[in-house]
Amino acid sequence: MLRRQFVRENPETVREALERRGIDDVNLDGILALDEEWRELKSRGDDLRHERNQVSSRIGELKREGEEEQAQEAIERSGELKDELESIEQRADELEDELEARLLELPNVPHDDIPEGDDELDNEEVRRVNFDDLREFPEEVVPHYDIGEELDILDFERGAKVAGGGFYFLKGDAARLEHALIQFMRDVHREQGYREVFPPVPVNSTAMTGTSQLPKFADDAYRVGGHNDEPYDDDDLWLCPTAEVPVTNMYAEDILLADDLPLKHQAYSPNFRREAGEHGTETRGLARVHQFNKVELVNFVEPENSDERLEALVEEAEAVLKRLGLPYRVVLLCDGDLTFASARTYDIEVWAPADDMEHGPERGGRWLEVSSASNFEAFQSRRIGLQYRPERHESAEYLHTLNASGTALARVMVALLEYYQNDDGTITVPEVLRPYMGGQERIEGHDPVGESAVGAGRRE
Asked: What are the extents of the domains in the chain?
């Protein structure tokens, strides 16, 4: 969150940040008015305490001097001051709670040098990779959801049967491929110096608030044992929307040492989000689903190193796609497309060729975001109370947090199933994944199971 003093002293900067992000439902003037009233009450409370201390000291003196009537008046005045002070402190505490809640509505301030724009169409492409030597494709590349069902390795119908739309089964070689991707990514990031953690899947409301999923994005999350339109408290649990939440909050209310930094964690987890099918994007297949696996990279660094670490973090996430041989691009997000907590974000988007072969990658292709690498600066650490000491004898300061997906597996799976298709309907397994699949070079599919398969053409 933004520091209260920063908001108070830089209202136009905050107002500009809201405008740049296209946020018009935050009453900044109301927040500033609350802060002013709170400060006036605190000042009045200080004055009352000072007067009461003086009156209390005077009571003893008056009694020693035999001035009983004046002493009684001082006692009565002390009682009045006590009552007024209690009333002021109660109101100040109420304002404090309201002000803290309202400050949670304010997004981070974007870096000055990021592009201006309204949405993803205004993002700035930084580079494209693996496009110089595209593999030869079949005459028609089949969308991943169709070839997945033809090979009987993806099953959306049975996924919907047991969990509803937006859920699916990976079967046979697709399940093996997913596990291979997870292990491959973990190994890549271990080489990059990441320490692995395996976090809890449910997270509480405090953790969700700490990384800014709450209160802004409550509607996108899966709440355990309650409805999203009902009030929640710190004891409520939510299904993890990203491992960023538990891993960042591992160190809530901690004080780290400069010797601990940079601290780099990777975490595999299943993730759950309600947003499937929104924003006019494709709703078929794996590109936007309610449950997906992901390997998350979380960094904790000293403030002066966070911009440099962000650039390195992007390269660490890119390494996965480079080794898989998948074409991709890196884009710098415009201010209107930034996430709530981020000051600067790069998206890594993989190219999937199905449905767009007549245009090819130079005409834009079909881009799927598989990683967002973000620098949150002190926005999250201030919300969770995470600090560090530059030196053991120095005062604690808020450190900077960053994260990226390394990467989101469902969309990488889309790209693999489409980019590595062959003329005979099989799918080539990328060379780097073969050791994780017992040396298997191709996915040839499986025979369907059950009466529904009869007459549908079992694989010969």
From this structure: 4-103, 120-443
